[in-house]
Amino acid sequence: xxxxxxxxxxxxxxxxxxxxxxxxxxxxxxxxxxxxxxxxxxxxxxxxxxxxxxxxxxxxxxxxxxxxxxxxxxxxxxxxxxxxxxxxxxxxxxxxxxxxxxxxxxxxxxxxxxxxxxxxxxxxxxxxxxxxxxxxxxxxxxxxxxxxxxxxxxxxxxxxxxxxxxxxxxxxxxxxxxxxxxxxxxxxxxxxxxxxxxxxxxxxxxxxxxxxxxxxxxxxxxxxxxxxxxxxxxxxxxxxxxxxxxxxxxxxxxxxxxxxxxxxxxxxxxxxxxxxxxxxxxxxxxxxxxxxxxxxxx
Length: 298
Description:
By secondary structure, the protein is α+β, with helices and mostly antiparallel strands. It has 13 helices and ten strands. It has two domains: 5-182, Jelly Rolls, CATH 2.60.120; 185-297, Orthogonal Bundle (Arc Repressor Mutant, subunit A). A five-stranded mixed β-sheet has the order 1-3-8-5-6. A five-stranded antiparallel β-sheet has the order 2-9-4-7-10, with helices on both faces. It starts with a strand and ends with a helix.
């Protein structure tokens, strides 16, 4: 694995790509207007959104490699590692980037709601693929932010820039919802595989060894990020990934309650609960009966 370079500020990123710093906390880069430079693995202390026009090498994000498609948006949150696998020669980048420091949005509505934009924690292979009309909207948002950066900084600059970034991200929310819909067949396959992962987990000794299955465990098995899996399931079924796990847990618990000679505590431990009372509370919340009441009624 290649060495990772840390870039903490917008200015450091601008210096790396040869971009003039017009504002210390935000920058829009048009790579087509820049000199070729080496791509390398880096960890950013800032938010970054990359709009790629054409294939330009294998980008490594975490430990996965992803080859860009046309009109693709990739979102990177602070402290995530990303970069390019091939650094043997300089490359002419094509596309654009929007980078901004967390300090820019502190004290704003966007700053309070930034966690709602869960796609910042998606993997690169869960990138947003834009239609022609969507691409035009994204370009327009970037152009407006760029205009404000070229304008002399005044008392309105921060409000306008942050508003345009928020508008940009809200459009991306809409476009991701569209992508979930247009990829419905793929999503149904993910749902089927997700249920299989949960079933297989409970059919082994993993619950007693590791405890209850987590969303991150299931996502790893499906080669997805936890956020993407959760958003996909919510869009497809109306239930979160955690709710799906709980429903499967209750379904299996009902079967185990019928098994003769097993105490409720034993069932709880077999399912991965550290404390039987936690199992009892979850069971009653989902069924309206305690495990013992359910056993007697049935």
